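note to self — DONT lose this again. spent like an hour looking for the file last time. sequence + predicted structure for the chain T wanted, 105 res
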Amino acid sequence: MLDSDAVNERARTTIPWMLVVGSAILFVLVLYVIFGAYLPTKQRVALLEAELKQLYRREAELQTKLAQLDQRISLREKALTAERDELARRLGELQSQQLPSAKPR
């Protein structure tokens, strides 16, 4: 039924070496992409994310300090305004006290 020469001939066929070499090159390229480029890039991204978190934390601290300084400035301005108004009122009172006493002379 089966011709033994045909079976033997099929078993003896040579491996296409260009296909083997191409597969090996493809395998090396895939390994390079995974280990040579992807992993270091992933590590670099992790470092940059950590640095970004640190910068955001620092920005939040600076924003808090700025808000506190703005609040202090606002309170000082209110205090100075109140003190100026009080001095103006007292000056007005003193001037009104001195004006009537200067008229009788």
